[in-house]
Design a protein that fits this description.
The chain is α/β, with parallel strands linked by helices and about 425 residues long. Helices cover about 40% and strands about 15% of the residues. The chain folds into 2 domains: about 5-205, Rossmann fold (3-Layer(aba) Sandwich), CATH 3.40.50; about 215-365, P-loop containing nucleotide triphosphate hydrolases (Rossmann fold), CATH 3.40.50. The chain is built from 16 helices and 14 strands. The radius of gyration is 31 Å and the shape is globular. The termini are far apart.
């Protein structure tokens, strides 16, 4: 099919052409007609396959007719970054239609969000926690919602948002269209779908498989040489856009500083950064101001940068799904990409799981000229401390070298007794 066969409004078709869309991706091809027909959907697709446009275009098509200045579509998503990405797609595709959208998430001031809710927007893109706050304060009124999208549902489950999502759903009309997208379907997500979707059409594109446009390589290395190997890989790799994943935010910060000190233009994205810092980092990475971004899994979903050529897992993620979502940041829009993973002996179980999913062994590589046998740096000596306080007293009783204090002469002891007796008599 091509986009003309969807019978979309001419204003949307103009924006589709300007965005450079030629043919719909498989998820768009299957999801758009069903969504335009008003059916409930359960969708699964690889990252980077155009999933966002698969639900944004049907929403815009429906909202072109009907009332304005009220919330008619609600998109719930787990992270601020993904909310901003969806919001940007709505703005791009909906330009010239007069339809308005607003983002609702924490970590920023509530003032602009309250103003948007009071003035009335047709589409809300929200993270669960902040949206629930607005509902409880009676600022967000969802009784007019016609379309609900739950995006990255499994990620919301992982982040503990499912109770908030269930509370939000109690404030929506029972008669609505619901679309749920999730990379995986654990039992909790299956139960959520069974409770809140009506005879949904299931669409699965590339379920659980990494994108075919990404090549994978493992670099076995001792733990103490990971930073040195990473810097050597960066020096030997020709790329203007590299995304590096670490397991913790503290390691992301430390590693980004090391990369900067080595002469690279680097930034970082993790949970300790403010929303303004996150947006500046993302903008700088997209525009090429930074050639390298070091991130935690907060960026594994919703990072919309098409030209990332390499993803490097400095730390192996906890699950196979997390690995698939990380490396899905490269090889997007049919471009080729590479995924490098620095692995230690502790990563064997997850490697075997990935090889089962991909039905082939993962390539093991070494970097020519790198010294894999370098010894770890010596640990700094811990300075010895002299015992104090009770430790000194214990040393005395344990036969330490200190000599016992000699007893006071008898005359001195008698004088002390008389002085204490006088004090007692005076106090009485």
């Amino acid at each position: 099919m091509n986009f003309h066969e969807f019978n979309l409004d001419s204003r949307l078709m103009t924006r589709i052409r300007r965005a450079g869309y030629i043919e719909p991706t498989p998820i768009q091809n299957d999801a758009i007609p069903a969504a335009i027909a008003g059916k409930d959907l359960i969708g699964t697709a690889q990252t980077g396959t155009g999933k966002t446009a698969a639900f944004v275009l049907p929403i815009l098509q429906r909202l072109l007719t009907g009332p304005r200045k009220r919330t008619r579509a609600l998109i719930v998503t787990p992270t601020r970054e993904l909310a901003e990405q969806i919001h940007e797609v709505i703005r791009t595709m909906g330009a010239g239609t007069g339809l308005r959208s607003a983002t609702i998430y924490g970590g920023v001031g509530a003032g602009p969000q309250i103003q948007a809710l009071q003035s009335g927007v047709e589409i809300l893109v929200a993270c669960p926690g902040r949206l629930l706050d607005h509902i409880q304060q009676r600022r967000a009124k969802l009784g007019t919602v016609e379309i609900l999208v739950l995006d990255e549902a499994d990620r919301m489950l992982d982040m503990g948002f499912l109770p908030d999502v269930n509370r939000i759903l109690t404030h929506l009309p029972a008669r609505r269209q619901t679309m749920l997208f999730s990379a995986t379907f654990p039992s909790e997500i299956e139960r959520l779908a069974a409770r809140h979707l009506s005879q949904p059409q299931r669409i699965a594109i590339g379920l659980r498989a990494p994108a075919r446009t990404v090549s994978h390589a493992l670099f076995p290395v001792p733990q103490h040489l990971k930073s040195a190997l990473l810097l050597a890989l960066l020096r030997s790799t020709e790329s203007d856009s590299v995304l590096i994943f670490t397991r913790t935010k503290h390691r992301a910060e430390r590693l980004a500083r090391q990369i900067e000190q080595a002469g690279f233009r680097a930034t970082r994205l993790h949970g300790n950064r403010s929303q303004g810092q996150r947006q500046a980092a993302l903008k700088g990475f997209k525009t090429g101001r930074y050639q390298i971004m070091v991130a935690t899994d907060i960026a594994a979903r919703g990072l919309d940068v098409d030209n990332i050529s390499h993803v490097i897992n400095f730390d192996m993620p906890d699950t196979a799904d997390a690995y698939i979502h990380r490396i899905g940041r490269t090889g997007r829009a049919e471009r080729n990409g590479e995924a490098f993973t620095l692995v230690t002996e502790q990563d064997g179980d997850l490697i075997r799981t990935l090889e089962k999913i991909m039905r082939k062994p993962l390539l093991r590589r070494t970097l020519p000229g790198f010294d894999y046998k370098a010894a770890p740096p010596p640990r700094p000596a811990v300075p010895s401390r002299k015992p104090r306080g009770s430790a000194v007293r214990r040393n005395r009783h344990a036969g330490g070298t200190r000599k016992p204090r000699p007893a006071a002469p008898a005359a001195t002891r008698s004088r002390r007794v008389r002085q204490r007796s006088k004090k007692i008599a005076a106090a009485a």
